[in-house]
Amino acid sequence: LAHAPLDTPRNALHDLDDIESVADWKAPDECCCLMGKILFQLALAASSCELSLHDCINEKMKLNGRKYPIELCKGKSGKYTKYSSQTGITKTEGQSIQKTLKGGKLEDESVVSVIERITAFATARHWARFHTPRNLVLALVGELGELAELYQWCGDGLQNHDADFLDKVGQELADVGIYLLRLSYVCNVVDIGKYAVVNQSCSKRD
């Protein structure tokens, strides 16, 4: 995921059985539609920067794999900087996803594939117990704030940004997308990709 979960009192966490029971709950259609709309808007925002949300997420997942090696952080929480001496990734070094990826149609199949990758990532690190809907929503909002911060003093209107800036934008869009897709899985919103495609189709008609 975008970051390892922060330390939280044990009694504030669901155990793994609780997480699985949450997955038995079916989100209302309104909730599914909203998640799909957010995913579509993220893809639209990426496209406006000539980035592919799908590819940004995949590249960020690769980077996160290097930042959070399984053998170092399995069952643990905290920032990637705990492992900087082993990974060589610090706040200023090794952070780029090294791509400015264009295009990318939002397809339901690719959404399913990414959700499976995110799920495997969290499961391998024993992080599922941290991933309650509340925690994931708060993490998502935090990442959205980091995305907004990049544009805070840029002014209105479209601007030409350099590759470093777009790299940061792509990563923050990816972080929001990763938490959104993880939230959809935990809340059993299995059709988030289809809801996003519906929004895509509606936007084209408008």
- Sheet bearing the most strands, described? none
Outline type:
globular
Nearest-integer average pLDDT: 81
Please state roughly what percent of the residues sit in beta strands, choosing from under 5%, 5-15%, 15-25%, 25-35%, 35-45% or over 45%: under 5%
How large is the radius of gyration? Answer: 17 Å
C-alpha termini separation: 34 Å
**Number of distinct beta strands:** 0
Helix and strand run: HHHHHHHHH
Describe, in plain words, how this protein is organized in 3D.
The protein has 9 helices and no strands. It starts with 15 loop residues before the first helix and ends with a helix. The longest helix has 24 residues, at 163-186. 61% of the residues lie in helices and 0% in strands. It has helices at 16-23, 29-48, 53-67, 70-73, 84-87, 108-124, 133-151, 163-186, 192-205. The chain has 206 residues and is mainly alpha-helical.
In short:
The protein is 61% helix and 0% strand. By secondary structure, it is mainly α. The termini are far apart.
Task: Give structural attributes.
0% strand; single chain
Write the layout of secondary structure elements.
Blueprint: H1 16-23, H2 29-48, H3 53-67, H4 70-73, H5 84-87, H6 108-124, H7 133-151, H8 163-186, H9 192-205
Helix pairs in contact: 2-8, 2-9, 3-6, 3-8, 6-8, 6-9, 7-8
